[in-house]
Design goal:
Distance between the termini: 25 Å
Structural class: alpha/beta
Number of strands: 12
CATH class of the largest domain: Alpha Beta
Number of helices: 13
Largest sheet: 6 strands, parallel
Number of domains: 2
Strand order of the largest sheet: 9-8-7-10-11-12
Helix content: 25-40%
CATH architecture of the largest domain: 3-Layer(aba) Sandwich
Radius of gyration: 21 Å
Low-confidence stretches: none
Shape: elongated
CATH superfamily of the largest domain: Glycogen Phosphorylase B
Strand content: 15-25%
Amino acid sequence: MELISYSMQYPKFLFKKGQKDYKNDVFQIRDAQFLINTANPWNIVRVSFQIKKLHPDLVIIQWWHPYFAPCYRIMEAVLGKRVKKLFVCHNVFPHERFFADALLTRLVLRRADYFLLHSQSDIEDLLTIKPDARYIKNPHPTYNAFKIRSLTKAQARQELSRQEHEKILLFFGFVREYKGLKHLIAAMPDIKRRLGSVRLIVAGSFGENREEYLQLIDAKQVGDCIEVVDGYVPDHEVERYFAACDVVVLPYESATQSGIIQIAFGFEKPVIVTNVGGLPDVVKDGQTGYIVERGNVKQLSDAIVRYYQCNREDVFAENVRKEAYRFSWDRLVEKIEVFVGGCEDGHTIN
């Protein structure tokens, strides 16, 4: 197996200053060759010919965003039809749609041989582009790489200047409209009234809408129980937030799947999510977390209160541990091997 990655995945100007962490080696893979410059056509052609000379049985390509369409279309053309290609689609279409995204996506994915998708909604999107697509569905594996120091909850809370007895909720990641943070903020007055001492940590970059959320916090009079950590969280600082919290909350209005859930599971933390996209596929309601209806502030509040009043943390954490193999990288590899082998034998497996 050869692992070929990017010498430049995205142009540097697309990243904010806080995201330019070039010394970060949390996800470093020693055997990888960092060759592909996604903005340099000549580089893409040269690397594609290098791949073709290896005479691969299968090339597995990651699909995140239509930005990669020109790069991958060139690769497909150079590799030709004889080289089988499997796309791992983290999202078929981007969360935030834009003009020509469907055209760019179709340009690349219609020429692929196989697909691995993480949610039913992505399967439905794929079939609008390629009705005869051969695919399998498998949840995204758990991220364990962020557990760098194996911090205990007490140690993490000490680093964040939080008390050991506090009830701490975590909303993590880039703050976008579709992630529904406004619903969680709206639920906080009721949660605070029913639980007493409780704290919500919002850790992530707000972008241009920061003031809108701060005004909502003021309007709901919950500034005393919401801590905003605005800005990109470097990989080496992720651990302290997940280790310190009791539960991770994803009140999303829409989603395909979420890496945040898999980070949480990597820290054996339960989650409270909404019934959108692929989130219910990975969360077992009442076992590894709770699932509530999208935009339902009352259900969200009730789930959080129930989590604490019924002392579900230890039981849910144990259930998350029991699910480890289901979300393992080994299982993902096994499913790909069986799937592609079955297709080569003339048996399509969905």
